[in-house]
Write a structure and sequence with these properties.
The complex is a heterodimer of chains A (335) and B (402).
Chain A (H helix, E strand, L loop, with lengths): L1 H18 L4 H8 L2 E5 L8 E2 L5 E2 L1 H14 L5 E5 L5 H6 L5 E2 L7 H6 L2 E3 L4 E3 L1 E6 L14 E5 L3 H12 L5 E5 L2 H10 L4 E5 H10 L6 E3 L7 E3 L2 E3 L3 H19 L14 H6 L6 H5 L5 H8 L3 H8 L29
Parallel strand pairs in A: 1-4, 1-5, 9-10, 9-11
Antiparallel strand pairs in A: 2-3, 6-14, 7-13, 8-11, 8-12
Chain B lengths: L5 H5 L4 H5 L2 H33 L21 H6 L7 H34 L4 H15 L3 H15 L7 E3 L3 E4 L2 E4 L1 E4 L3 H29 L6 H18 L4 E4 L2 E2 L4 E2 L2 E3 L1 H28 L2 H9 L4 H31 L11 H13 L2 H30 L5
Antiparallel strand pairs in B: 1-2, 2-3, 3-8, 4-5, 6-7
The chains are: A alpha/beta (335), B alpha+beta (402).
């Protein structure tokens, strides 16, 4: 009988504990690392090398958050997720944040219990075909078989676009990026469609990049950004402003090399936590932005290191340039 | 053994006596255990929905009415449901269900024949045949079925040619890396009469067969009926078909700009999945058949040989009917496994229930509990139906015990 009572009490306690949500920040600080959901391998955005080190612009957002909260950009545990798994992993608390070339849409933002913390890459959906097909416009693709990854906005855009332009196609859906690529390579389908950044990344990773052409049409808006769970505003602010710190640093000309040289510039001093008390508002130490810029670098450094024009991916800044330089990248002010 | 009514046993006992009464104690603990399990379940479900609510995730089944908005690989489900991206999420559910059922149906038929063949071959007196069958079983049974699905799929899309260089059989049937293209039957008015003639032909054949069997029993005169049967089953509809001016045409596939257009496309995802599942499940069915045959007493075969039956006759008339009694229950299990394993298709993008509905819709809508719950109920229902049907068959086949 006593055991029975003990058991019921334990059951109630466990069930109760499930209902209580701890603060993500204190959680991260007590376990000593940030758990970050990334892709299963998309060169330039999130990919692991042979020694297991993750790099990419999405990875750098995870690292920036780790630098801000723990003072060490290497304290990140990466969890590779498929497009289908990503939201469930975040909802269930398996990961602290998701930084996996994920498009910000109203449905995802408002009905999944998630919040998008900003945009770290403005993308759009494009098409890639083999040069040998001799196709120069996506409007010539009537009757083609299209390779596509399951569980993405890409699937929806393609259907809308096909309807609008009266283009009849056959969609061949795969679960993972690699199977999609295998299908395209083997000829199971004629066209590969995903975000243009992804196409450039896959083309760079192929044996002979000149065999593939990315068609000029961009058929959708795909703002990609980091995602957190709803209901923890402090954590949401940390992720949002870690990304903003990288963008603002570029705007103010602060790089990982010049991070100590902020004297006599009030804007730089505020950003670097030398003056003001903004760090208290997000619940971090004054050097949180210093740690981000010195360890990860500003937005431009991250971009040029991973996907810029001098990397095999070779993407120009385009719309992802700062608002002062003809792009639409814009961070609210640090004050 | 029947338990006595608990009330009649504890009637008139004092509280103290009740405390030490075995029956009363047993009853109390059973009720307590039941309440505990029910309470635990209630708490878990309640908690689940509280948490979902607290995290701002939308709940309920209204998403089923919403526009799906994405395309599905064209296969049987699409054709039967007239699926377009404008269809609802509920239609996606039906499309997935149909695609699951067709894999299970074809897979079970192929696996049964293959299993029967391999199972008999394994007991062959021919050394090579027996060893080959044994090797087949050991090879395919011991490789995870998911791996086999990937393997056959990637083999398929890599060894067959591009649509522009398809293997063509008289320009009627085409085979390339995008699938098998069969002529698509286009039905016209009057085809119903041909169908009726076909069914009438079958019914007449059954009656004829009965008549000649009776004659055989009474007079011992054996009549060959194959010719008559063919005439009735195929000839009768053929006459109607010609009389009605061929009310059936076939749409053949022709080469378009990228792909073959028209015809009936059997996608490689379906072929690879059904093939892999059949080949895998057949190994288990073969073993079930083998154990069934080995369970038939040796004397039965000797007796069959003694009365002059040939090997084939002995197998068909004496051994198999008895072997099946032993083989059916484990085979039922394999049918269930095949049906459940069909959900692995999501890995290669075949749009069955878990791929199209449990995958894409789940990702667009995000309501995991509702969607996975629906999928689970469907698999449960399909499995119970197969189980019920085959238990019925098993009861008919089993030796009546008295």
């Amino acid at each position: 009988m006593k055991q029975l009572v003990k058991l019921s009490v334990a059951t109630i306690l466990v069930a109760g504990a499930l209902a209580v949500q701890a603060s993500t920040l204190s959680d991260v600080q007590s376990k000593g690392y940030v758990t970050c959901g990334v892709s299963k391998g998309l060169a330039g955005f999130s990919a692991a090398d042979s020694s297991g080190t993750w790099t990419g612009v999405d990875v750098d957002v995870c690292r920036a958050v780790a630098a801000a909260t723990l003072g060490d950009a290497t304290k990140v545990k990466f969890v590779p997720l498929t497009a289908k798994e990503r939201f469930t992993a975040l909802q269930s608390g398996e990961i602290d944040m998701l930084s996996r070339n994920t498009t910000w849409t109203i449905t995802r933002d408002a009905s999944l219990g998630l919040n998008f913390a900003g945009v770290n890459y403005y993308d759009g959906q494009g098409f890639m075909v083999k040069s040998s097909l001799g196709v120069s416009s996506a409007l010539d693709l009537g009757g083609a078989a299209v390779c596509i990854q399951a569980g993405t906005t890409t699937e929806l855009n393609l259907a809308d676009w096909g309807k609008q332009n009266g283009i009849d196609y056959q969609s061949v859906v795969s679960d993972t990026n690699s199977q999609t690529l295998t299908n395209y390579d083997s000829g199971r389908c004629d066209v590969l469609t995903t975000d243009a950044s992804g196409l450039y990344s896959m083309r760079a990773a192929s044996n002979d990049p000149s065999e593939h052409v990315v068609l000029p049409e961009i058929i959708s808006k795909e703002p990609l950004g980091p995602v957190v769970r709803q209901g923890d505003d402090q954590w949401f602010n940390i992720v949002r402003w870690s990304l903003n710190a990288m963008i603002t640093a570029e705007e103010l000309g602060v790089t990982s090399a010049t991070v100590d040289d902020v004297t006599n510039n009030p804007e730089r001093e505020r950003l670097m936590g030398r003056s003001g008390n903004t760090h208290e508002y997000v619940g971090l130490t004054p050097d949180w932005t210093y740690n981000i810029i010195s360890q990860v670098g500003n937005y431009s450094e991250s971009f040029e290191r991973n996907i810029g024009i001098n990397t095999p991916i070779g993407i120009a800044r385009g719309v992802n340039a700062l608002w002062t330089q003809g792009g639409i990248l814009y961070s609210p002010p640090f004050r | 053994m029947k338990q006595k009514n608990i009330l009649s046993q504890v009637k008139g006992l004092t509280f103290r006596e009740l405390l030490y009464n075995n029956e009363a104690r047993a009853f109390f603990f059973q009720v307590a255990t039941f309440l505990l399990i029910a309470g635990l379940f209630y708490t878990i479900v309640g908690n689940l929905f509280d948490n979902i609510e607290a995290r701002g995730i939308h709940t309920g089944f209204s998403f089923l009415k919403n526009r799906a908005g994405f395309d599905i690989l064209p296969f049987l489900g699409n054709y039967l449901q007239d699926y377009t991206p404008e269809s609802s999420n509920l239609t996606v559910f039906y499309v997935g269900l149909i695609n699951t059922l067709i894999v299970a149906f074809i897979g079970i038929i192929v696996a049964t024949f293959l299993g029967l063949f391999i199972g008999i071959a394994r007991l062959s007196n021919n050394y090579l045949v027996a060893k080959l069958a044994g090797g087949y079983i050991e090879l395919f049974r011991n490789i995870p079925v998911l791996l086999q699905i990937f393997f056959w799929y990637n083999i398929f899309i890599n060894i067959f040619p591009h649509p522009k260089k398809s293997f063509s059989f008289f320009d009627i049937v085409f085979l390339n890396q995008r699938g098998l293209y069969l002529p698509k039957p286009i039905l016209e008015d009057g085809i119903l009469f041909v169908l009726i003639a076909f069914i009438v032909g079958i019914i007449l054949t059954v009656f004829m067969k009965r008549y000649f069997n009776k004659k055989h029993d009474e007079t011992g005169v054996y009549t060959r009926t194959l010719g008559y049967s063919t005439l009735l089953i195929l000839g009768l509809p053929a006459v109607f078909f010609l009389l009605l001016g061929s009310p059936l045409h076939f749409d053949l596939a022709v080469l378009g700009k990228f792909n073959l257009k028209g015809g009936m496309q059997v996608v490689p995802e379906f072929i690879a999945l059904t093939f892999a599942l059949s080949v895998y499940t057949a190994t288990y069915i073969a073993e079930a058949i083998r154990s069934g045959i080995e369970a038939v007493d040796k004397g039965q075969k000797e007796a069959a040989a003694a009365i002059g039956l040939t090997q084939t006759q002995s197998l068909k008339l004496i051994v198999l009917p008895q072997a099946l009694r032993v083989a059916i229950p484990p085979t039922i299990n394999q049918y269930l496994n095949l049906t459940k394993n069909s959900s692995l298709a999501t890995a290669i993008g075949y749009p069955e229930l878990m791929g199209a509905f449990g995958g894409t819709v789940l990702n667009q809508v995000g309501q995991a509990v509702e969607i996975l719950g629906m999928a689970m109920l469907v698999y449960l229902f399909i499995s119970l139906c197969i189980s019920l049907l085959l238990n019925f068959v098993n009861n008919r086949m089993a030796i009546p015990e008295r």
